[in-house]
């Protein structure tokens, strides 16, 4: 048996599946595509998470597009966190160009241009479905980790949440919790200390500065009502295609705290909302996180631990998370170990550090008798990638240099007119358009402070009135005495007594 025949047999056995699967492309050997060595990923294993890595311009976005298209076709919704803004073309039908025809002839996979249902989501002032969450929904632990607070500061946040719960004061937006922090050290200091213990003004000052930092990165737009319902990510259109929800993040690249805040809150909400699925035949939702290093670079140790925990647990809810980054080393090792599907595009070796990174990357993939992985990593072409996944039995599939299929939707961004049309037709845009500012902690505390001030003023006024009344009575007595002393009868009487004394 020739080497190609051995290789083909290995790939067929490794990537065979009894259930439904995504067809990524075909395996390559010695630079040649082998059309009958198809790389198919079982739907059943897609909740085991994944990594899509590679240098800029090697085709990562198109790979995500291919995956999203097929997921949608199987009725599986997708959430794509689009940092660069080059993913939106999936909403429009593509066109078969000569290079696409050539590629699909090589891999022997039909090409059918088509569009997919899309919702455009936003965390900022951009047009689209507005994503919001309340401070209360975060809870004290998660909110503290977002702000990277120490144990003492986290304890103060817990006190604030407890006080608001006890007093039936909703914490909806950042102005609510800022008002509460001021109340702890100003007007309500005595009340808080009596019930919950002393709170240092230095501690509250630090917390306030960190909240302001989050606010400056757009947190004031994110925190509030109407809260986004994660069930709206699970929608399927009338044709049975899952919606591709694109979170446009082009204007918050320099706001990593807001990005990580949203991501963590979303994952936590999904985990606590969705029921346990176990080993389902296909996932409920797939999440793609582009430029994942932005999350991990700015995240605290506590936040990383929280993300790692959720990644471990959320797969039981039927949710798969896929991290997209330039270098696999950008992803913490604890999270990297949880990833079942790995798609590695080409890496560039310009420096000694780059070469070391390539060696480390190659070590993260299964060994192969057919490839020198570290050498091939630098020579993969655009739209080519190393692939390894999990079989239906949960075992790693053989490493395969893969010629990937092309996206069937447009490989370009939407125009402003197309974006406007999608938003106009969207039911979710209308649902979450209104920002509600109902009575919450800010207003209730303001009313309480005002009432206390009025009560204090009334007490002071009453005291002054009593004092004034006493002074008035005293003045009346003095006047009476003076009047009596200075009267004519009193003077005559006094002179009479004095004359009698002198005669003696």
Distance between the termini: 160 Å
CATH H-level homologous superfamily name of the largest domain: P-loop containing nucleotide triphosphate hydrolases
The helix/strand series, from N terminus to C terminus, equals HEEEHEHEEHHHHHEHEHHEHEHHEEHHHH
Helix and strand content put the structural class at alpha/beta
Which CATH architecture of the largest domain? 3-Layer(aba) Sandwich
**Based on CA inertia axes, which overall geometry fits?**
elongated
Low-confidence residue ranges? none
At a glance:
The protein is an alpha/beta fold and 504 residues long. Helices cover 48% and strands 13% of the residues. The protein folds into 2 domains: 3-132 and 225-425, P-loop containing nucleotide triphosphate hydrolases (Rossmann fold); 135-223 and 438-444.
Structure description:
With 504 residues, this protein is α/β, with parallel strands linked by helices. 48% of the residues lie in helices and 13% in strands. It has helices at 3-14, 60-73, 98-107, 135-147, 151-166, 174-185, 189-196, 201-222, 256-273, 293-298, 301-314, 333-336, 352-363, 373-376, 416-425, 427-431, 441-485, 488-503; strands spanning 21-29, 32-42, 50-53, 78-82, 118-122, 129-130, 244-248, 285-289, 319-325, 341-344, 384-388, 400-404. The chain has a 12-stranded mixed sheet with strand order 2-1-12-11-10-3-9-8-4-7-5-6, with helices on both faces. Helix 9 runs parallel beside helix 11 (301-314). The radius of gyration is 35 Å and the shape is elongated. The mean pLDDT is 85.
């Amino acid at each position: 048996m020739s080497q190609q025949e051995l290789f083909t047999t290995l790939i067929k056995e490794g990537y065979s599946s009894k259930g439904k699967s995504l067809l990524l492309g075909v395996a390559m050997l010695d630079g040649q595509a082998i059309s009958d060595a198809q790389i198919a990923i079982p739907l059943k294993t897609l909740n085991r998470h994944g990594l899509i890595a590679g240098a800029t311009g090697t085709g990562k976005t198109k790979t995500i597009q291919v995956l999203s298209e097929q997921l949608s076709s199987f009725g599986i919704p997708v959430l794509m966190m689009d940092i660069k803004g080059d993913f939106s073309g999936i909403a429009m039908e593509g066109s078969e160009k000569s290079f696409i025809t050539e590629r699909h002839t090589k891999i022997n996979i039909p090409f059918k241009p088509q569009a997919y249902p899309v919702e455009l989501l936003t965390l900022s002032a951009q047009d689209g479905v507005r994503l919001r969450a309340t401070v209360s929904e975060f809870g004290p632990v998660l909110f503290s980790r977002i702000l990277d607070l120490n144990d003492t500061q986290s304890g103060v946040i817990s006190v604030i949440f407890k006080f608001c719960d006890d007093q039936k004061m909703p914490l909806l937006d950042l102005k609510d919790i800022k008002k509460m922090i001021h109340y702890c050290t100003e007007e309500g200091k005595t009340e808080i200390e009596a019930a919950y213990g002393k709170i240092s003004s230095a501690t509250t000052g630090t917390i306030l500065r960190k909240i302001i930092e989050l606010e400056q990165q757009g947190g004031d737009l994110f925190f509030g009502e109407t809260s986004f319902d994660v069930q709206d990510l699970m929608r399927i259109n009338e044709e049975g295609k899952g919606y591709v929800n694109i979170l446009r993040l082009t204007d918050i690249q320099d706001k990593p705290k807001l990005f990580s805040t949203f991501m963590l809150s979303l994952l936590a909400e999904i985990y606590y909302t969705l029921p346990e699925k176990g080993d389902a035949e296909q996932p409920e939702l797939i999440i793609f996180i582009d430029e994942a290093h932005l999350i991990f670079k700015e995240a605290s140790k506590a936040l990383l631990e929280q993300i790692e925990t959720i990644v471990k647990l959320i797969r039981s809810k039927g949710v798969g998370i896929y991290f997209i980054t330039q270098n696999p080393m950008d992803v913490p090792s604890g999270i990297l170990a949880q990833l079942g599907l790995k798609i590695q595009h080409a890496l560039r070796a310009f420096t000694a550090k780059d070469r070391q990174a390539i060696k480390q990357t190659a070590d993260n993939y299964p060994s192969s008798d057919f490839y020198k992985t570290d050498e091939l990593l630098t020579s993969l072409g655009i739209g080519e990638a190393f692939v390894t996944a999990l079989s239906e039995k949960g075992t790693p599939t053989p490493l395969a240099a893969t010629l990937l299929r092309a996206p069937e939707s447009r490989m370009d961004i939407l125009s402003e007119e197309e974006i406007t049309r999608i938003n106009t037709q969207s039911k979710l845009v209308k649902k979450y358009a209104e920002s509600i500012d109902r009575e919450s902690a800010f207003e209730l505390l303001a009313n309480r402070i005002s009432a206390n001030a009025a009560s204090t003023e009334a007490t002071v006024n009453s005291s002054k009135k009593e004092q004034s009344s006493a002074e008035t009575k005293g003045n009346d007595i003095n006047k009476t005495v003076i009047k009596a002393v200075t009267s004519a009868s009193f003077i005559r009487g006094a002179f009479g007594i004095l004359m009698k004394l002198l005669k003696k």
